[in-house]
Amino acid sequence: MAPLIEIRGLVKSYTSGDRRVDVLADLDLALEQGERLAIIGESGVGKSTLMYIIGTLDRADGGTLRYEGRDVTGWSDDEISALRNRTIGFVFQFHHLLPDFNALENVMMPALIARWDRPRARESALELLDTVGLAHRLTHRPGELSGGEQQRVAIARALILGPRLMLADEPTGNLDPGTAGEIEDLLCGLNEERGLGLIVTTHNRHLAGRMNRRLELREGRLFVLAE
Predict the structure, then answer these.
(1) Which of 47, 89, 183, 212 is the most exposed place for a label (fewest CB within 10 A)?
(2) Would you tell me how many other CB atoms lie within 10 Å of the CB of residue 194?
(3) How many CA atoms are closer than 13 Å to the CA of 156, on its beta-carbon side?
(4) What is the DSSP letter of 181?
C-alpha cells in the first residue's frame, strides 16, 4: 500500500526585501496510513509553512507531493481543492471558529459548503460533537465556550467531511496543561479509532512523545529527533 503522504525534494523560499529566505530545502517525508507523527522545531523554522504545503493550502517551489501514490504536484487549483476537501482536516492553534454561529453550526459549515443537504449535515455534526464530548454545548457560540471546548469544536469541524489525514498545527499551544492533555487524548483516540493519519507540529514534548515518530525541522530539513 502506498504511503498516505510522500514528499520528495521539497523546496520553499520567500523574498524579504532584497533577500531570499530559504525555508525548506530538499526535504523528504513519508507518512503511512494511520500513522501519527510529531514535527518539532524552533519558532520560525518553517513548521507551519510545511503544514500548509502538506495540506495543499500553499505550493512548494520544487519537489513532489504524493497522496496515496498520486503525484498531485501539478494538479490544478480546482483538483487540489477537491482533494483537500475529501482527504484533509485542519486544526490550528487558533481555532478560527465563526463567532456569530453556535457550535453545531460551526461544525456543519464545511458540509453545507460542500452542498450536503442540511439534515445530513446536522446529523453528522451532532454525532461528531457527541464524539468530542460537547453534546451538551450545541447552541453555545465560541465566546461562550472555554479554550478547550473551542478546540473540540474545531476538531469536530475538521472531521465532518471524513478526512483520512488530520493536520494539527500547535493544537495545544494556547491551553493549560490539564486541558492540553484532554485534547491530546482526543487526537490520539481519533487516530486509533478511525485510522486517521495525524501530523502535529508542537512545542509540547508530552504531546510529541505520544506520536509514533518525532522529527525535528531545522535548516530546511527533517531529522529524527534524539530521545
Answers:
(1) 212
(2) 15
(3) 31
(4) H
